[in-house]
């Protein structure tokens, strides 16, 4: 049997990355929805926040004891390495 002489080596390279909302012309759209915190029902997703707000008003009209909601925003982000 042979003997291993040497030790494993690791090479670490630290890089600086930037993260920001993607506002490029080809970026995905920001999408909005609302979710009822009482029963978990969720509005349709829309690029226009007014549509989920209208859903909340209809939902609470149909369910008078449902007073709390969550806003759900899907926003595209991008990263890149700084050189």
TrEMBL record:
<feature type="domain" description="DUF7848">
    <location>
        <begin position="7"/>
        <end position="82"/>
    </location>
</feature>
<protein>
    <recommendedName>
        <fullName>DUF7848 domain-containing protein</fullName>
    </recommendedName>
</protein>
<dbReference type="Pfam" id="PF25232">
    <property type="entry name" value="DUF7848"/>
</dbReference>
<dbReference type="InterPro" id="IPR057170">
    <property type="entry name" value="DUF7848"/>
</dbReference>
